[in-house]
Amino acid sequence: MLRAAALLAAWFAAFSGAAFAAEPAASLFTLSSPAFADGALLPLKYAGGAQCSGAKGGNLSPPLAWSNPPKETKSFAVVMTDPDGGRGLGSVHWVAYGIAAARSGLKEGEGAPASGEIVAGRNSRGTVGYSGPCGPPVDAPHHYVIQVLALDLEPSSLPPGLDRDQLYKAIAGHSLGPASLVVRYRRAE
Question: Which end of the chain is more exposed for a tag (fewer CB within 10 A), N or C?
Answer without folding.
Answer: N
